[in-house]
Amino acid sequence: MTGSEESPSFRLAYVPGVTPAKWVRIWNERLPDVPLHLVAVSAAEVPEVLRGGGADAGLVRLPVDRTVFSAIPLYTETTVVVVPKDHVVAAVEEVTADDLAEDIVLHPLDDVIRWERLPGRPAIERPATTADAIELVAAGVGLLVVPQSLARLHHRRDLTYRPVTDAPQSSVALSWPEDATTDLVEDFIGIVRGRTVNSTRGRTPPPAQQKRKPAAGKAGAGKAAGKPGSGKAAAGKNPRGRAAAPKAGKRGKPRRRS
Question: Using one digit for the tens of pLDDT, what is the confidence trace for 222-236?
Fold first, then answer.
């Protein structure tokens, strides 16, 4: 047996903005003997990491190449525009893409939103990363449209954000190479889908986690068949076995003689 077989582990890649903490906690409770290692990667790099075996599965942004990867969509994010707190957009609850037509809207090279038509006016140069674009927004250079989780990830006290109601949205999914659907991948699929330990598809739970079934016919047998001697009360005896006293007949009030 090799060392890897004796000490299995699970590697989970995740892209910026995705928070895997809830699923990691459940994994640690359910599979305490199998360490889960988190691998932080960019959205552009995650397909190569999964394809090259750098992770067993990943929390990624759709779309993925479905000829290579399986994917289970998990949720779709609200798209927001990040603005300085003194910007006019900060005074409203939500905006449309047309509301940004007069503003410079930054479009970083690692943008994860798939635009058909970019909102606003383009900047002279594209920032290399979303983090760089956030710095430019704080400097008053332009605005930035991103999934809400990225706005939270790069939160600054001098910036705020508002939903863009008609912008494309980004969906997050669990993905893995289709030809590498291992038992541990199935375990993680069960976790993100909310399956219980005993309902995890394709896996037999450990003996300590299996529920014992009651022996057939044992439960409720006394009630169904009755105990010997039952029915005595119906034969005129009380529960202590004594004969029940006969009911006295109804007596009328004696008539007074005149």
Answer: 444 444 444 444 444
